[in-house]
Amino acid sequence: MREGVMNAKSRMKVAEYFGLRVEVICMMEQCALIRFGEREFVVDAADLVFVREFRRAA
Fold this sequence. Notes:
Blueprint lengths: L12 E5 L2 E8 L3 E6 L2 E6 L3 E3 L8
Antiparallel strand pairs: 1-2, 1-5, 2-3, 3-4
């Protein structure tokens, strides 16, 4: 089992990083830890564009 797996109650934060859809693991003022595929990277937080996901009504 992978470390840091989120539970069902927490929501995964999704952002775009230069056109790639990535998971934001940790966000700070100047930098962010992101996951793309099975790899993790530290990037400049200003380069992330957060994706707004909409829910459909049941």
